[in-house]
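Suppose you are handed a protein chain with no further information: no name, no annotation, nothing but its sequence. What can you learn? This example shows the usual starting point.
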Amino acid sequence: MTTRIDDSKDPRPSTGFALAVPESWWEFDIRPEGRDATIRALVDDRVRETPELAPYRSDLTTMLRRMAKDAHDSGAVYMGCMAENFDGVPLSATITVSVVGARSEQGAALSTDPRDIADSLRTVTPRREDDAWRTVTTVEIPEIGLTARTFGVEDVPVSQGDTRTLRMVLTQTYIPVPGTTGQVVLVSGASPVLDLAEAFHDIFDAVTSTFRFV
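A reasonable first move is to predict its three-dimensional structure. Written in structure tokens, the prediction is:
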């Protein structure tokens, strides 16, 4: 799917990007004015293709709406997701793309060099087997170059302004926007299915490796 990074406050042309997710995943408009209609249409199409999903139509629709709302509320400009139901057990994951400003809380410009970004991120070392953890590294993406990345199992806010947290498998990759000095694309992969953490980290890595500016 191809979309555009568009900052109305920046007079320069907007930057487009492309990202590929597995064919079984869902991609749709996450904006409030478009998501309900596109989600209904997608679910209808998927049920026609796979009649076995019919009993889960309502669950899938609810799950996709919640994912889309959470992504939009967090500032994402794109979301791809998997939402499946295996023997009554929901499996879900999302990939979101957001554009974040490389500035401090005081408004000072920060470096978008991936090494500097990685140095500014905090590693979390678990004390016990079931503790949250985070690894900080840098990775090469074809046609993009070096990027900063964190991956682990982390406690993230349920929603903006909510003090509750949800433990998630999380991979986040920070990609400097070319031609700018203060913008970074954040590609985030998340899933609540902790038992499959290693597999989802691999999936998120594979999807993020398809990211391209266009």
